[in-house]
Specification:
8-stranded parallel beta barrel, alpha/beta
């Protein structure tokens, strides 16, 4: 099956990974095993070994969702900042070992609560953070993607990418998260288009983050906006699917 766009299948847990399904449908894969904050070292090694074997001779886009639960890498509390940083470093090393093209981190910014001086502080620490991550894990050659999570609008995320100033740090726009805010999809895409190279695709009823399939008309709207702004980000299907081949018909 030939897709109009670059499509990625999300795999939340390695036992759900189906190599033949990925290969036969011509899609990429985004693994999310390592978002679990309580994996033991033995479990991490087991999961890494599994993917190393499965990825052999599998030519596709590879991405990985990094940790996010309770992390704050720009916290004023140095202990919290250190723990968060070490989690980021560890995940980047895993991504390097698995030869990932992309790794995703949540922005963790609560921009609606930041006074100007605090916002400047957060921006400066983010700039230091990502420069250090790239320097400390030079073996990782792929992109680092920052995903909107708590942002009420795209302005602070656009400012963050500009402040960080690293060509390999770009944006993953999560349209399900954006839908929970009081702006249109075009507001987000129009603002972030220059640095948005990846998207999480899922929907909700406007109350909470449900991760349900896109509703009628949402994919058509998305495609019209991508065409309007002449961009072609990777589309990662971050919702449960009964049949991948049938689901991909929506994206032809």
């Amino acid at each position: 099956m030939k897709n109009k766009r670059k499509i990625v299948q999300v795999v939340r847990y390695y036992k759900e990974f189906d190599r033949d399904e990925i290969r036969d449908n011509g899609v990429g894969v985004e693994i999310q095993d390592f978002t679990d904050p309580n994996l033991s070292e033995a479990e991490i090694e087991k999961i890494k070994f599994f993917y190393k074997e499965e990825f052999k001779d599998l030519d596709c886009i590879r991405s990985m969702h990094g940790p996010f639960i309770d992390l704050n890498p720009f916290s004023p509390d140095l202990d919290i900042r250190k723990i968060s940083y070490n989690k980021y470093i560890k995940s980047l090393k895993i991504a390097a070992e698995l030869e990932m093209d992309y790794i995703i981190f949540h922005s963790q910014m609560h921009d609606g609560h930041l006074e100007p001086i605090m916002k400047e502080y957060v921006m400066d620490l983010n700039k230091e953070l990502f420069a250090s991550l790239i320097s400390d894990v030079p073996e990782y050659k792929g992109y680092i993607l920052i995903e909107n999570i708590f942002e009420k609008n795209p302005d602070s995320l656009a400012e963050l990418i500009e402040t960080i100033g690293q060509p390999r740090v770009r944006i993953n726009l999560d349209i399900g998260h954006a839908k929970l805010m009081d702006l249109t999809m075009e507001d987000w895409i129009g603002k972030l288009k220059d640095n948005m190279i990846y998207m999480h695709i899922h929907s909700n009823n406007g109350d909470f983050d449900q991760h349900i399939p896109p509703k009628e008309g949402e994919i058509d709207l998305l495609y019209s906006l991508l065409d309007k702004y002449e961009i072609d980000p990777i589309l990662s299907l971050e919702y449960k699917k009964q049949n991948l081949e049938e689901e991909l018909e929506k994206y032809i």
